[in-house]
Amino acid sequence: MLLLGTKTLTIENTTIFADHADPNQFWYLPRPVKFARRGVDKRASFTFIKYKPAAVAGGAKGGGYLMFDVDLQLDPAVEQKILGKLRAIAPDRPKLSAVSFDEGTVACVALNLQGSGGTTAPDGTFKAVEKILGATVPSLDATNSATFSLTLSQEGATILEQAFEQGTTPVGVLYNLKYTGMRPALEVKITADLKRVYNHFSAALSGQYYFVKVGIEAAFESLVQNGAIKIEVINYSSADDRAEKEKWALDFFKENLLKEWFEPTLTPGQLKGGQVTPPELPNRPDPSPNTPPTENTPPTENPTPSSVRQPATLEITNRDPNPSPDGYLIEHTPSSSGTAETLTIRGDNPTVKVNGEVRSLDANNQLTIDIADNTNANIIVECPATTTDETFHLFFDYDKPRESGWSTSSKTYLNYLNNTPNPPDTEFSNTTSRQGITDAPGLHISGDGNQLKDWVRTRLAVPKDVTIKAHASFENDDSPLKQTFNLKLSQRRLQVAKGLILPLVTSTTENAFGHTRARDAQPQRVGDFRDRVAEITGKVISTSAAKIEAKLSRPAPTVTPTPTPTPTPTPTPTPAPKPEPTAGDPAIALKLKFIHQEEQKTVTLQYNRSEAVQRTYAPQGLIGLLLNDLADKRKHFVEIDLDDPFFRVFAVQLDGSIDFERIGLKSAQVAIDYGNPNNAIEHKHADFVFEPNEPTEQKFEVFMNSTADTFYKYSVQYHFDPGSDWEGRAYSYEIPAIPTDDRTLAINPFEHLGFLEARVVPNRIDWGVIDSIDAILSYQSPTGWNKTKTFTFTSASSAQSWKLRLDDPNARSYNYRFVYHLKDGTKQESELAPTETTAIALNDPFEGALDIQFIPLFAPGSLRMMFIDVKYNDPVNLYNREERLELSGTSTAPVLLRLSLKDRTKRSFQYRLTIVKDNQLRQSAFISTEETLIGISDNI
After folding, report:
1. Where does 659-732 have alpha helices with state H?
2. Which of 780, 812, 842 is the endpoint of a domain?
3. Cis ω before 323 (30° cut-off from 0)
4. pLDDT tens per residue, range 199-247
5. Rounded to an integer, what distance in angstroms lies between the CA atom of residue 762 and that of residue 758?
6. Contact call for residues 460 and 539 (beta carbons, < 8 A)
7. Are 391 and 474 part of one and the same domain?
8. Which candidate, 533, 545, 381, places its Cα nearest to that of 462?
9. What's the domain range around 785?
10. Which stretches does DSSP call E strand in 747-810?
11. pTM of the entire predicted model
């Protein structure tokens, strides 16, 4: 947002504002008022028509029309001069943009008449100008264009023509525009790379289970020095003031945010995962020796035939695919006795069905099936497809895509999505998958935008969930400006990758890292093409699904006669051998689990006290002066006889130069009716549709009717996109028919509807006592409908916007109130306040604050630990605070505590010291004071 105040400049007679956040961004108030330029030849949009009637006997008189478009745009040559002078001020390449206006009006003054479109000269007066037609509200876009048409009497046409020839200034244009700017105030920005902070403390506290606050001050100083924590004071009055605000920001960061680790994803010392457990012991054979045989047994006198059970056999009946993938098989271990058969199933996550019934496997991927004599079992083993990660590398040139003019609706962005970047991007268009594009493990390929889409369509497994990580190369420059530049560069690369694949994937997880990966690499990578990339990672099929069908069967037993046995001598018992231990004894096998946790979050906090205010800008210019810009005045002054064919043809030029995307407009449909609707022969009707990316100018042209009417009626239907951010009473609006004789019809939604964009900007908020804030905005239309919107803000929230479409462009007043949810469980509500501004500063409900500093006066190392308990009580306002601060025995830096106040006159608070020293704990009584600088010692 533009910044009002001492940083405002005047360059080349143009007012220049700085930006409140970006030191390279500047804003200018456009000037001067001049003719709009249309077409390829940039011809000024100015036409003066003087006509005379074909017959005067009936009292008809001549007249004229003066039609023109004006706009507010800075001349390109002046813009370049301003940019040249701003280069001496901006730290990097300056950017210059026109101020965006919230609302405004435009009027024309000509001879006897002044007003906006629709103003008519009163009866009973001299009417040189009979009527002013055209705009009441300028376009409020980059050009702020306005279209007017003056209906002139015969006398008025003569006066204006003579005045123009004499070089006088009879016609002028008056703008009255309003814009919003930020009032300068305190602004402190803290950026913390939580990964580096986490790694720093993890390295310092390795092997410990609890985060202890020992040496925390030195650690923070080190983190500030090495850039892991960056503090930027944007507004300050002196070097001492800057140093004080830097120290305040760092202390606030430590005391209020570090203790919660900025609500990180992982907390130091907290491991994810379960315990390591040993596997179950397998069945072991009985280690006892075999029992020796007994003495000889005499043979049986009459042996009978015996049946012999046949072994079971496994037959593979089908494989899909055939052959099966490596390692996918069914192993059968025939039983030596009995009917229980053991199968071992090999494959990834197999599902086994035996005779249609799902069977589970044991820890060894085995199952037992009972196969009786003369029976069989049908077995089906199905293994799902397995996947692995694969990464597609979409490379870009060093600084592509460039920031100038970039948005997700810009031609540059759309050219990337069409795989035809303009300006050309050599690396992006490279269709050859190169080697050595990464040192990371896994599968990696590269290519252009079309190859990326083919990769998503044909190679990724369903569901097509992908992760996008965008990077920029590290060019040995880690300044804040370069960090911001590369972060935005990687964000644009992420937008390109996401836009290419978004219709094809199921979901995306995305992040832009700037040059941090290359900077933190070991060894550090400088200027490496591998980091100018968007990396898209998804799951690809590593092993296809497999199916094996088999039959396990046992034939009927065979019957054989048993021969008469002969006596068998008693053998000498052989001692049983001692069982040898199994190699890699499974009884001591352990499963090793590697656990690693990372904190990848980068947190940026901004503390500021500022407010948005609305200012008025009223540029104006006279047509006579602007006429000097016309290269050939003869092309703009036309004399017409009504007998000319021109007057026998009725034509209206329709101009639909609308910023569709900005207001969520899908189409504008214009209906024109000319002539008496009861006369079917002479009545003419036509419909016109204006849509994005379609011609902005269309023409209505018919033969003039028998009465030579110059008036017609037009009605407009506006159809808005339900998927846009804009809310309103309806998605379609029909403007009733309007009579006019304006031959240049500008379709301007701002003339018929209102577009209110209200932004709620977090400002001065003490998140130490506030959990969240509800900002409730409400709008009551004069026509009876209403809308309410609630935004919830937390410490991590940024500005939020409410876009509201209004039936009445002049009814822009709305109400807002805040509901504060405090950490003690209570809540406070502000009063309902009306406003018409487009930006609301969100502050906490407290009128003041105590910034207390406790200054250590004890010798470092003279004690182990000190605790400071602080109490504040405001019973009238039902407000209580209790805080506890901790100091290590080696601490020497003051400790800051901020207490927000509801009553700025009640400044008294209590504090108590607790000292841990010499294996003793000593505690003082509570002391009441209003001092904010308090010395603390171990003498209590």
Report:
1. 660-663
2. 842
3. yes
4. 776 655 444 434 444 456 667 777 777 777 887 776 665 677 677 777 7
5. 13
6. yes
7. yes
8. 545
9. 754-842
10. 754-762, 770-780, 786-793, 800-806
11. 0.33
